[in-house]
Amino acid sequence: MRGKLIAAVVATALAFSMSACAEDSGSGTSSDSSAGAGGSTTIKSGLKVAFLPKQVNNPYFDTSDNKGGKVAVEEFKGTYSETGPSEASPSAQVSYINTLSQQGANVIAVSANDKDAICGALKEARTNGAKVVTYDSDTKPECRDLFINQATSEGIAKIQVKLISDAIGPDGGEIAILSATANATNQNAWIEQMKAELGKPEYSKLKLVDTVYGDDEDQKSFQEAQGLMAKHPNLKGIISPTTVGIAAAGRYLSGSTYKGKVQLTGLGTPNQMKAYVKDGTVKAFALWNPADLGYLAAYAGAALASGVIKGKEGDKFTAGKLGEFTVGKDGTVLLGDPYTFKADNIDQFNF
Protein backbone atom coordinates (compact mmCIF):
# COMPACT_ATOMS: atom_id res chain seq x y z
CA MET A 1 0.00 0.00 0.00
CA ARG A 2 1.11 3.55 -0.31
CA GLY A 3 3.65 4.76 2.24
CA LYS A 4 1.17 6.74 4.29
CA LEU A 5 -1.06 3.74 4.72
CA ILE A 6 1.74 1.43 5.86
CA ALA A 7 2.87 4.09 8.28
CA ALA A 8 -0.65 4.41 9.63
CA VAL A 9 -0.94 0.66 9.94
CA VAL A 10 2.21 0.31 12.00
CA ALA A 11 1.77 3.45 14.09
CA THR A 12 -1.82 2.87 15.11
CA ALA A 13 -1.97 -0.93 15.17
CA LEU A 14 -4.36 -0.81 12.29
CA ALA A 15 -6.92 1.37 14.03
CA PHE A 16 -10.30 0.79 12.52
CA SER A 17 -12.27 3.61 11.02
CA MET A 18 -14.52 4.28 8.10
CA SER A 19 -17.17 6.52 6.61
CA ALA A 20 -20.09 6.01 4.34
CA CYS A 21 -22.68 7.95 2.51
CA ALA A 22 -25.45 7.70 0.03
CA GLU A 23 -27.72 9.76 -2.06
CA ASP A 24 -31.17 11.28 -1.69
CA SER A 25 -31.90 11.02 1.99
CA GLY A 26 -30.06 13.51 4.22
CA SER A 27 -30.86 17.17 3.93
CA GLY A 28 -27.95 18.29 6.08
CA THR A 29 -24.24 18.10 5.48
CA SER A 30 -21.46 16.45 7.40
CA SER A 31 -17.79 15.70 6.67
CA ASP A 32 -15.90 18.12 4.46
CA SER A 33 -14.54 16.59 1.27
CA SER A 34 -12.46 17.77 -1.65
CA ALA A 35 -14.63 18.68 -4.60
CA GLY A 36 -14.33 16.42 -7.62
CA ALA A 37 -16.28 16.60 -10.85
CA GLY A 38 -19.61 16.60 -9.02
CA GLY A 39 -19.57 20.20 -7.77
CA SER A 40 -20.59 19.77 -4.10
CA THR A 41 -17.86 19.95 -1.47
CA THR A 42 -19.60 18.31 1.47
CA ILE A 43 -20.97 14.88 2.32
CA LYS A 44 -24.64 14.70 3.26
CA SER A 45 -25.70 13.50 6.66
CA GLY A 46 -28.60 11.10 7.06
CA LEU A 47 -27.52 8.80 4.24
CA LYS A 48 -28.58 5.16 4.38
CA VAL A 49 -25.51 3.02 3.74
CA ALA A 50 -25.78 -0.76 3.43
CA PHE A 51 -22.89 -3.21 3.32
CA LEU A 52 -23.41 -6.53 1.54
CA PRO A 53 -20.42 -8.86 2.06
CA LYS A 54 -19.84 -12.15 0.29
CA GLN A 55 -21.09 -13.82 3.44
CA VAL A 56 -21.98 -12.68 6.94
CA ASN A 57 -20.23 -14.00 10.06
CA ASN A 58 -16.92 -14.04 8.18
CA PRO A 59 -14.11 -12.53 10.33
CA TYR A 60 -12.69 -10.59 7.40
CA PHE A 61 -16.01 -8.92 6.58
CA ASP A 62 -16.85 -8.45 10.25
CA THR A 63 -13.74 -6.26 10.33
CA SER A 64 -14.22 -4.43 7.02
CA ASP A 65 -17.90 -3.73 7.57
CA ASN A 66 -18.51 -3.42 11.30
CA LYS A 67 -15.12 -2.06 12.39
CA GLY A 68 -14.65 0.06 9.30
CA GLY A 69 -17.89 0.87 7.52
CA LYS A 70 -19.98 1.34 10.61
CA VAL A 71 -17.46 3.69 12.20
CA ALA A 72 -17.39 5.78 9.04
CA VAL A 73 -21.15 6.04 8.72
CA GLU A 74 -21.38 7.17 12.31
CA GLU A 75 -18.76 9.83 11.60
CA PHE A 76 -20.97 11.57 9.07
CA LYS A 77 -24.23 10.83 10.88
CA GLY A 78 -25.61 8.31 8.43
CA THR A 79 -27.52 5.09 9.01
CA TYR A 80 -25.46 1.91 8.72
CA SER A 81 -26.61 -1.63 8.06
CA GLU A 82 -25.05 -4.94 7.06
CA THR A 83 -26.87 -7.84 5.48
CA GLY A 84 -26.01 -10.81 3.30
CA PRO A 85 -26.02 -14.57 2.74
CA SER A 86 -24.53 -17.13 5.09
CA GLU A 87 -22.96 -18.98 2.16
CA ALA A 88 -20.78 -17.43 -0.55
CA SER A 89 -22.57 -18.71 -3.66
CA PRO A 90 -22.73 -16.83 -7.00
CA SER A 91 -26.38 -15.75 -6.93
CA ALA A 92 -26.98 -15.61 -3.17
CA GLN A 93 -26.63 -11.82 -3.02
CA VAL A 94 -29.31 -11.00 -5.60
CA SER A 95 -32.32 -11.05 -3.27
CA TYR A 96 -30.47 -8.86 -0.74
CA ILE A 97 -29.68 -6.26 -3.40
CA ASN A 98 -33.32 -6.19 -4.46
CA THR A 99 -34.46 -5.71 -0.87
CA LEU A 100 -31.96 -2.93 -0.18
CA SER A 101 -33.07 -1.16 -3.34
CA GLN A 102 -36.72 -1.41 -2.31
CA GLN A 103 -35.83 -0.06 1.13
CA GLY A 104 -34.30 3.04 -0.44
CA ALA A 105 -30.64 2.52 0.38
CA ASN A 106 -28.59 5.50 -0.78
CA VAL A 107 -25.37 3.52 -0.99
CA ILE A 108 -24.90 -0.21 -1.46
CA ALA A 109 -21.35 -1.41 -0.80
CA VAL A 110 -21.01 -4.97 -2.06
CA SER A 111 -18.23 -7.55 -2.26
CA ALA A 112 -19.26 -9.60 -5.27
CA ASN A 113 -19.41 -13.37 -5.12
CA ASP A 114 -19.65 -13.42 -8.92
CA LYS A 115 -18.87 -10.63 -11.39
CA ASP A 116 -21.88 -11.48 -13.59
CA ALA A 117 -24.58 -12.98 -11.37
CA ILE A 118 -25.49 -9.80 -9.49
CA CYS A 119 -25.18 -7.31 -12.35
CA GLY A 120 -28.86 -7.21 -13.22
CA ALA A 121 -29.88 -6.51 -9.63
CA LEU A 122 -27.21 -3.84 -9.22
CA LYS A 123 -28.22 -2.07 -12.42
CA GLU A 124 -31.82 -1.98 -11.20
CA ALA A 125 -30.71 -0.61 -7.83
CA ARG A 126 -28.78 2.15 -9.58
CA THR A 127 -31.82 2.96 -11.69
CA ASN A 128 -33.76 3.33 -8.45
CA GLY A 129 -31.23 5.88 -7.18
CA ALA A 130 -28.66 3.91 -5.19
CA LYS A 131 -24.95 4.45 -5.65
CA VAL A 132 -23.17 1.11 -5.92
CA VAL A 133 -19.62 0.68 -4.68
CA THR A 134 -17.91 -2.68 -4.90
CA TYR A 135 -15.07 -3.47 -2.50
CA ASP A 136 -12.75 -6.45 -2.10
CA SER A 137 -14.25 -8.24 -5.16
CA ASP A 138 -15.57 -6.45 -8.24
CA THR A 139 -18.36 -6.88 -10.76
CA LYS A 140 -18.20 -5.81 -14.38
CA PRO A 141 -17.46 -2.04 -14.42
CA GLU A 142 -20.81 -1.21 -16.04
CA CYS A 143 -22.66 -2.72 -13.07
CA ARG A 144 -21.38 -0.33 -10.40
CA ASP A 145 -20.21 3.24 -9.87
CA LEU A 146 -16.84 2.60 -8.22
CA PHE A 147 -14.63 -0.32 -7.21
CA ILE A 148 -12.51 0.04 -4.07
CA ASN A 149 -9.51 -2.15 -4.75
CA GLN A 150 -7.60 -3.27 -1.67
CA ALA A 151 -4.39 -3.58 -3.70
CA THR A 152 -3.50 -4.31 -7.30
CA SER A 153 -3.78 -7.92 -8.43
CA GLU A 154 -0.15 -7.74 -9.42
CA GLY A 155 0.92 -6.52 -5.99
CA ILE A 156 -1.07 -9.21 -4.19
CA ALA A 157 0.33 -11.92 -6.46
CA LYS A 158 3.90 -10.73 -6.07
CA ILE A 159 3.89 -10.72 -2.29
CA GLN A 160 2.32 -14.17 -1.99
CA VAL A 161 4.71 -15.81 -4.45
CA LYS A 162 7.68 -14.12 -2.78
CA LEU A 163 6.56 -15.23 0.68
CA ILE A 164 6.11 -18.88 -0.33
CA SER A 165 9.46 -18.83 -2.16
CA ASP A 166 11.23 -17.37 0.86
CA ALA A 167 9.57 -19.89 3.18
CA ILE A 168 10.43 -22.94 1.06
CA GLY A 169 13.97 -21.83 0.28
CA PRO A 170 16.23 -21.95 -2.77
CA ASP A 171 15.59 -25.60 -3.61
CA GLY A 172 11.96 -24.84 -4.45
CA GLY A 173 9.46 -27.64 -5.04
CA GLU A 174 5.79 -28.29 -5.67
CA ILE A 175 3.21 -25.78 -4.47
CA ALA A 176 -0.59 -25.57 -4.56
CA ILE A 177 -3.24 -22.88 -4.19
CA LEU A 178 -6.19 -23.17 -1.80
CA SER A 179 -8.69 -20.57 -3.02
CA ALA A 180 -12.19 -19.49 -1.96
CA THR A 181 -14.96 -20.01 -4.53
CA ALA A 182 -14.28 -20.84 -8.15
CA ASN A 183 -16.32 -17.81 -9.26
CA ALA A 184 -14.78 -15.15 -6.99
CA THR A 185 -13.55 -12.33 -9.21
CA ASN A 186 -10.70 -11.25 -6.97
CA GLN A 187 -9.45 -14.78 -6.30
CA ASN A 188 -9.33 -15.64 -9.99
CA ALA A 189 -7.53 -12.41 -10.85
CA TRP A 190 -4.92 -13.05 -8.15
CA ILE A 191 -4.42 -16.65 -9.24
CA GLU A 192 -3.81 -15.62 -12.84
CA GLN A 193 -1.29 -13.03 -11.70
CA MET A 194 0.41 -15.59 -9.43
CA LYS A 195 0.78 -17.93 -12.39
CA ALA A 196 2.39 -15.12 -14.35
CA GLU A 197 4.68 -14.31 -11.43
CA LEU A 198 5.71 -17.96 -11.12
CA GLY A 199 6.82 -17.82 -14.75
CA LYS A 200 9.67 -15.45 -13.85
CA PRO A 201 13.22 -16.89 -13.80
CA GLU A 202 13.68 -16.34 -10.06
CA TYR A 203 10.82 -18.73 -9.36
CA SER A 204 11.78 -21.41 -11.87
CA LYS A 205 12.18 -24.00 -9.10
CA LEU A 206 8.61 -23.57 -7.88
CA LYS A 207 6.03 -25.75 -9.64
CA LEU A 208 2.29 -25.08 -9.26
CA VAL A 209 0.67 -28.53 -9.28
CA ASP A 210 -2.92 -27.87 -8.17
CA THR A 211 -5.58 -25.28 -7.36
CA VAL A 212 -8.47 -26.28 -5.10
CA TYR A 213 -11.48 -24.41 -3.69
CA GLY A 214 -12.70 -24.35 -0.10
CA ASP A 215 -15.68 -22.07 -0.89
CA ASP A 216 -14.69 -19.83 2.04
CA GLU A 217 -16.03 -22.51 4.39
CA ASP A 218 -13.80 -23.49 7.27
CA GLN A 219 -14.43 -27.24 7.24
CA LYS A 220 -14.30 -27.59 3.46
CA SER A 221 -11.07 -25.59 3.34
CA PHE A 222 -9.61 -27.82 6.06
CA GLN A 223 -10.54 -30.91 4.05
CA GLU A 224 -9.13 -29.45 0.85
CA ALA A 225 -5.80 -28.79 2.58
CA GLN A 226 -5.82 -32.36 3.85
CA GLY A 227 -6.66 -33.60 0.36
CA LEU A 228 -3.77 -31.70 -1.19
CA MET A 229 -1.30 -33.58 0.97
CA ALA A 230 -2.87 -36.93 0.12
CA LYS A 231 -2.81 -36.13 -3.59
CA HIS A 232 0.63 -34.49 -3.66
CA PRO A 233 2.90 -36.16 -1.08
CA ASN A 234 5.90 -34.10 -2.27
CA LEU A 235 4.14 -30.77 -1.78
CA LYS A 236 6.39 -28.11 -0.27
CA GLY A 237 4.01 -25.20 0.09
CA ILE A 238 0.43 -23.90 0.00
CA ILE A 239 -0.72 -20.40 -0.91
CA SER A 240 -4.21 -19.54 0.33
CA PRO A 241 -5.33 -16.05 -0.77
CA THR A 242 -8.40 -16.14 1.46
CA THR A 243 -8.66 -15.49 5.20
CA VAL A 244 -10.91 -18.50 5.78
CA GLY A 245 -8.69 -20.82 3.73
CA ILE A 246 -5.36 -19.86 5.23
CA ALA A 247 -6.68 -20.23 8.79
CA ALA A 248 -8.17 -23.65 8.03
CA ALA A 249 -4.97 -24.81 6.33
CA GLY A 250 -2.97 -23.51 9.28
CA ARG A 251 -5.11 -25.50 11.67
CA TYR A 252 -4.64 -28.66 9.62
CA LEU A 253 -0.89 -28.32 9.15
CA SER A 254 -0.21 -27.33 12.76
CA GLY A 255 -1.74 -30.58 13.99
CA SER A 256 -0.17 -32.82 11.37
CA THR A 257 3.20 -34.38 10.64
CA TYR A 258 3.60 -31.78 7.87
CA LYS A 259 4.07 -28.92 10.34
CA GLY A 260 7.31 -27.12 9.48
CA LYS A 261 7.80 -29.31 6.41
CA VAL A 262 5.03 -27.88 4.22
CA GLN A 263 5.06 -24.09 4.18
CA LEU A 264 1.91 -21.97 4.23
CA THR A 265 1.29 -18.36 3.29
CA GLY A 266 -1.49 -16.25 1.80
CA LEU A 267 -3.88 -13.59 2.98
CA GLY A 268 -5.01 -13.71 6.60
CA THR A 269 -5.81 -11.60 9.63
CA PRO A 270 -3.35 -11.35 12.55
CA ASN A 271 -5.80 -12.68 15.14
CA GLN A 272 -6.57 -15.74 13.01
CA MET A 273 -2.94 -16.49 12.24
CA LYS A 274 -1.06 -15.47 15.38
CA ALA A 275 -1.00 -18.97 16.91
CA TYR A 276 0.27 -20.52 13.67
CA VAL A 277 3.02 -17.94 13.32
CA LYS A 278 4.12 -18.48 16.90
CA ASP A 279 4.14 -22.28 16.65
CA GLY A 280 6.18 -22.24 13.43
CA THR A 281 3.45 -23.42 11.04
CA VAL A 282 3.56 -20.09 9.16
CA LYS A 283 6.61 -17.87 8.69
CA ALA A 284 4.83 -14.89 7.14
CA PHE A 285 1.56 -13.88 5.47
CA ALA A 286 0.07 -10.71 4.06
CA LEU A 287 -3.05 -8.57 4.04
CA TRP A 288 -4.19 -4.97 3.83
CA ASN A 289 -6.18 -3.38 6.64
CA PRO A 290 -9.76 -4.59 5.97
CA ALA A 291 -11.20 -1.88 8.22
CA ASP A 292 -9.53 0.76 6.05
CA LEU A 293 -10.99 -0.93 2.98
CA GLY A 294 -14.51 -0.68 4.36
CA TYR A 295 -13.86 2.84 5.59
CA LEU A 296 -12.75 3.92 2.13
CA ALA A 297 -15.70 2.17 0.45
CA ALA A 298 -18.11 4.07 2.64
CA TYR A 299 -16.52 7.45 2.01
CA ALA A 300 -16.42 6.78 -1.72
CA GLY A 301 -20.12 5.91 -1.72
CA ALA A 302 -20.85 8.99 0.34
CA ALA A 303 -18.95 11.23 -2.05
CA LEU A 304 -20.93 9.79 -4.96
CA ALA A 305 -24.29 10.09 -3.23
CA SER A 306 -23.57 13.65 -2.13
CA GLY A 307 -22.48 14.82 -5.57
CA VAL A 308 -18.88 15.44 -4.50
CA ILE A 309 -17.72 13.16 -7.33
CA LYS A 310 -19.32 11.42 -10.28
CA GLY A 311 -16.99 8.43 -10.35
CA LYS A 312 -15.05 9.60 -13.39
CA GLU A 313 -11.32 9.07 -13.84
CA GLY A 314 -9.46 11.93 -12.16
CA ASP A 315 -12.18 12.73 -9.62
CA LYS A 316 -10.72 13.43 -6.17
CA PHE A 317 -12.30 13.04 -2.75
CA THR A 318 -11.21 12.92 0.86
CA ALA A 319 -11.83 9.73 2.84
CA GLY A 320 -11.71 10.95 6.42
CA LYS A 321 -8.59 9.85 8.28
CA LEU A 322 -7.15 8.12 5.21
CA GLY A 323 -6.75 11.34 3.27
CA GLU A 324 -7.28 12.12 -0.39
CA PHE A 325 -7.90 9.55 -3.12
CA THR A 326 -8.21 9.80 -6.89
CA VAL A 327 -10.52 7.75 -9.08
CA GLY A 328 -8.53 5.78 -11.64
CA LYS A 329 -9.31 3.92 -14.82
CA ASP A 330 -12.61 2.00 -14.98
CA GLY A 331 -13.86 3.71 -11.83
CA THR A 332 -11.26 2.10 -9.55
CA VAL A 333 -9.93 3.56 -6.31
CA LEU A 334 -6.79 1.92 -4.92
CA LEU A 335 -6.29 1.53 -1.17
CA GLY A 336 -2.61 0.54 -1.38
CA ASP A 337 -0.13 -2.35 -1.18
CA PRO A 338 -0.35 -5.41 1.11
CA TYR A 339 1.44 -5.50 4.45
CA THR A 340 3.50 -8.50 5.63
CA PHE A 341 2.85 -9.98 9.07
CA LYS A 342 5.46 -12.17 10.78
CA ALA A 343 6.71 -13.19 14.21
CA ASP A 344 8.49 -9.92 14.96
CA ASN A 345 5.47 -7.68 14.34
CA ILE A 346 2.26 -9.69 14.67
CA ASP A 347 1.74 -8.82 18.34
CA GLN A 348 1.31 -5.17 17.36
CA PHE A 349 -2.04 -5.89 15.69
CA ASN A 350 -5.49 -6.81 16.92
CA PHE A 351 -8.00 -7.68 14.20
Question: Can you describe what's shown?
Answer:
The protein has 351 residues and is α/β, with parallel strands linked by helices. The chain contains ten helices and 16 strands. A six-stranded parallel sheet has the order 4-3-5-6-7-15, sandwiched between helices. The chain has a four-stranded parallel sheet with strand order 9-8-10-11, sandwiched between helices. Strands 1-2 form a two-stranded antiparallel sheet. Helix 2 (59-75) links the parallel strand 3 and strand 4 (79-82). Helix 3 (94-102) packs parallel to helix 4, helix 5 crosses helix 6 (185-198) and helix 7 packs across helix 8. The chain is elongated, with a radius of gyration of 20 Å. The two termini are 18 Å apart. The model is unreliable at 1-28 (pLDDT under 50).
Order of helices and strands: HEEEHEHEHEEHEHEHEHEHEHEEEE
Give the overall pLDDT as a whole number: 90
Overall geometry: elongated
Spans of at least 5 consecutive residues with low confidence: 1-28
Instruction: Report the total helices.
Output: 10
Domain Periplasmic binding protein: 49-307
Subcellular location: Cell envelope
InterPro entries: Bact_Solute-Bind_Prot2 (IPR050555), Peripla_BP_I (IPR028082), RhaS (IPR013459), SBP_2_dom (IPR025997)
Keywords: Signal
Note the main attributes of this structure:
351 residues; alpha/beta; 4-stranded parallel beta sheet; 16 strands; elongated; 6-stranded parallel beta sheet; Rhamnose ABC transporter substrate-binding protein
